[in-house]
Design goal:
The structure holds two protein chains of two kinds. Chain A is mainly alpha-helical. Chain A has 15 helices and three strands. By secondary structure, chain B is an all-alpha fold. The chains are: A mainly alpha, B mainly alpha.
Chain lengths: 372, 143
Amino acid sequence: MPSLLHSLLLDLKRRGEGVLRELNAMQSLSPNFEAHRTSVVSRLERTLLVVDRLLKDPDLANPKLEPNFFMDFKRLSELVLNVEDSSLLILKRCSQEDRFLSALLQQICREVGYKDPAPLCGALSFQYFQALMGMDIIMTPQTQASELLALPDLYHELAHFVLFRRRSDFEVPLLGLIHKFFADAIRKGKQQGLPKASLEIIRDNHALWTSSWHVEFACDMVATYWCGPSYGLANLRLSATRGDPYQDSATHPADDARRAGIECILKLAGDSKAASEIDRAWLDLKRLSPSVQPPGYAKRYSTRLLEKLAESIYTACSKAGFKRFADQRTQASAVVCRTVSEAWDAFQRDATTFPAFESSAIAKLKKQLSLP
Amino acid sequence: MSDLSIIAHDYELNAEFARKFNEAVLNLKRVYLLRRAATPDTQANVGKSRNDLRQLLESLISALEDQGKTWTADQAQVPADVLERLHKRLKGELPETILEFRRVTEILTKGAALDEAAFAALDRVCEAADATASAAFRRLRRI
């Protein structure tokens, strides 16, 4: 009787072949969708070859190796499910909105100096913007193709790919700075005779910063490097819909702290005026909100640490050959960068007439990107 | 921007670590536990697997021992989630486990054969890495 693992692998092979058949049946896709399809097909074919090899492995049922083969099975199965859930979904739909957003993202990649192939973009998210790095896909809200003010968030999602793929240049130096900062804080705390509970709070903050927060701060900073003040304004707009700007979670730092990180990059880019203007808008937002800074907030989000991270990210962006917002703005070809910036100017000037501006700007962008 | 981007980031890091560690362990188990004769092709694989495992174990030891010591970039090879899971699983037996990891690292450095005890230690890492990757995948798909 064949082993359970053998049967599971046969089932995985069947499922993978089913997805592959659907991918191979697709025709007349636009060039960037076709490029994504080709790449996924080849990845899936390689995966199925590995499954075949495992099925033929004479040691598959050996008790000493079987648990390790089962682990292999899980990674392969996860890949097939990811292809089905993301690539197949977007490729099968390939709507006008998805094509526009993908062309827009491709153009953004050209403008900012992102050298890898542009991820595919689909307006299929039910959870705001999402970057699926392993699948080379970004999901946006479903109405994103007809709106400009949240477009800076697309730069943030693209930055997730940078953080992941250029980890040693972008993420690892940040981890070094954060670990040193908190190690120093603990050392000083011990010297000052801080109670155990206070040291524990420092350790908890350390863990939050190194588990996920540094990635979010870094993506904000890269997005600001690329997109300039518009990113800070989009962050404020998003925060206004989320409520308490001092609220944080295990995955995301507080919106107000993110504002501070964004402003650090604006200042490094020589745009202190924009940083002050965003700051003023934030004061206005805080005036409307009943929220107050919780105790320990200033220590949790040290300005000194944010400044150090911003310096590190700014240097990494520069070394990677990325183009700053100020450099893109002067280039006639940087149509998305300019449109986003003009959209925010228009919105701040007069929110009543903004919808007309937005429709016309999107129509112009489509024309510039040669889309219907 | 949403939690999913962070979870996707974690999943990719955890899955890659789990895949790489497990692949190296599988290759070496064939040679040292099942005594499969190495062909010229598999010999290169064995060398690479020994080297990969040695590097990953050194990073892991350094990360597990990080109690107030200076953090080094090398420790970033081990995803934070895997480290956290190992810390929880090894609670109470961390010093002995680190000693065992050191012994395995020495065997790998010397080019000597790995024994059953070495594979038992390596499998603990495989299991923790696999559980971490699976947990991240479930969070990603919300299942």
